[in-house]
């Protein structure tokens, strides 16, 4: 299964999320950068309902089903909105770690924890033209 991470956090949390997902056993993670968005972070799919539910529960994010965000059949997407800076604050520590050496770089904002959840809002209807990359584990 492919996971698609759309980073609209404005804090470059996508690569850290990709590494975290790979550590959880997801071999293929596609990353896409998007302009910062106030859209709540969420998990979405068109037909991979069980996988999306498991991932949404693990990340403590709402899960949506529909065609408003472009995912292929069998694919699960994760939108990291600006709220991910707090709701997924642990990613900040991962984002501040050099993946090659494991060495911490100085984070711009100290680690914070928050359990607040926003209710899902309408998804953007236009696909992003932002660059994307694919991470694969060896």
Q: Topology of this structure?
A:
Blueprint: E1 2-7, H1 14-23, E2 28-33, E3 42-45, H2 49-59, E4 63-65, E5 76-80, H3 84-87, H4 90-95, E6 132-136
Parallel strand pairs: 1-2, 1-5, 3-4
Antiparallel strand pairs: 2-6, 3-5
Description:
The protein has 138 residues and is an alpha/beta fold. Helix content is 22%, strand content 21%. The protein contains 4 helices and 6 strands; from the N terminus they run E-H-E-E-H-E-E-H-H-E. The chain has helices at residues 14-23, 49-59, 84-87, 90-95, and strands at 2-7, 28-33, 42-45, 63-65, 76-80, 132-136. It has a 6-stranded mixed β-sheet, with helices on one face. It starts with a strand and ends with a strand. Mean pLDDT is 75; it is low at 101-131.
């Amino acid at each position: 299964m492919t996971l698609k991470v759309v980073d609209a956090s404005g804090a470059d949390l996508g690569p850290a999320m990709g590494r975290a997902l790979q550590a959880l056993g997801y071999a293929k993670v596609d990353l896409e950068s998007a302009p910062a968005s106030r859209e709540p972070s969420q998990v979405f799919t068109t037909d991979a309902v069980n996988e999306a539910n498991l991932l949404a529960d693990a990340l403590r994010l709402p899960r949506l089903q529909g065609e408003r965000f472009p995912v292929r059949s069998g694919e699960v997407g994760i939108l990291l909105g600006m709220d991910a800076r707090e709701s997924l604050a642990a990613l900040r520590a991962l984002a501040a770690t050099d993946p090659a050496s494991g060495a911490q770089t100085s984070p711009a904002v100290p680690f914070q924890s928050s359990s607040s959840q926003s209710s899902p809002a309408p998804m953007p209807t236009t696909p992003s033209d932002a660059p994307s990359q694919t991470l694969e584990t060896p």
